[in-house]
Backbone:
């Protein structure tokens, strides 16, 4: 079985690696920065290609994890896109966080070419990718998902087909909407407690075991207390994701008042120079307000 992987960012690099180290698969990678692809090949003993189309030639499965809708179109239907060289019956699995519209669009194009397509955005962050413990939310046809699942298992702890094409992306939007409110609530609680003179490490040790507990509390309270925000998913990426959520909400009529507000809070973080800070940097807004 031959596999191609397109996009070796902080998520794609280890995910592709797990297909080799855990799955024993023959993987050919493509990355816009060739040096990154060369480093991956050195680490995992796979091979690299100069274009997405070259990587996908003869592959049974093509995985992608790129930046946004435009990047995804470029690597699939662009002049050097994988859809031009994938063999009939091959399955394309997209781990990009993108819009549901582009998932449906590319699913239709893939089907017309005799290809499979699964939209499969992930949650779990860089640590989840490195540990092979991601949650994968999938949309597409039953048969295509059934083919892809035995490969997805190598870098995931949970994976599920949630409906037709676009359903994976819609589920990822639910995920990001829920996270946005949680992180803001945690930032407010930590800031409040510190202002009140509490030992917030001790407070979190207690309240995390009750109804307030969450993954965000367990994994991000320390970064908030320390004011160090270099531990994962960047504010720039979160704003991209929340923008997708807000666009979809305008189409389906579901109000997202908290999400819209938190999106603007992340815009403030960006203005502070924190675009590459992780999502727990919401607390930095309060520190900035104190200085005004």
Residues:
């Amino acid at each position: 079985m031959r596999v191609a992987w397109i996009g070796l960012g902080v998520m794609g690099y280890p995910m592709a690696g797990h297909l080799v180290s855990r799955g024993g698969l023959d993987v050919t990678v493509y990355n816009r920065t060739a040096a990154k692809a060369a480093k991956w090949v050195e680490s995992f003993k796979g091979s690299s290609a100069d274009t997405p189309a070259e990587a996908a030639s003869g592959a049974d499965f093509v995985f992608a994890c790129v930046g946004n809708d435009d990047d995804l179109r470029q690597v699939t239907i662009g002049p050097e896109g994988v859809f031009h060289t994938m063999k009939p019956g091959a399955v394309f699995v997209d781990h990009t966080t993108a819009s549901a519209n582009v998932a449906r669009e590319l699913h239709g194009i893939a089907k017309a070419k005799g290809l499979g397509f699964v939209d499969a955005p992930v949650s779990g962050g860089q640590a989840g990718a490195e540990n092979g413990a991601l949650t994968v939310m999938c949309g597409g046809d039953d048969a295509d998902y059934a083919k892809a699942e035995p490969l997805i298992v190598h870098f995931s702890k949970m994976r599920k087909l949630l409906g037709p094409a676009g359903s994976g992306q819609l589920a990822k939007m639910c995920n990001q909407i829920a996270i946005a409110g949680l992180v803001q609530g945690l930032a407010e609680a930590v800031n409040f407690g510190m202002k009140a003179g509490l030992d917030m490490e001790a407070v979190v040790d207690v309240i995390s075991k009750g109804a307030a507990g969450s993954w965000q509390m367990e994994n991000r309270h320390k970064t908030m207390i320390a004011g160090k925000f270099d531990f994962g998913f960047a504010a720039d990426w979160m704003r991209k994701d929340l923008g997708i959520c807000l666009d979809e909400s305008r189409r389906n009529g579901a109000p997202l008042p908290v999400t819209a507000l938190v999106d603007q809070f992340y815009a403030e973080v960006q203005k502070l120079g924190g675009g590459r800070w992780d999502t727990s940097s919401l607390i930095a807004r309060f520190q900035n307000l104190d200085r005004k």
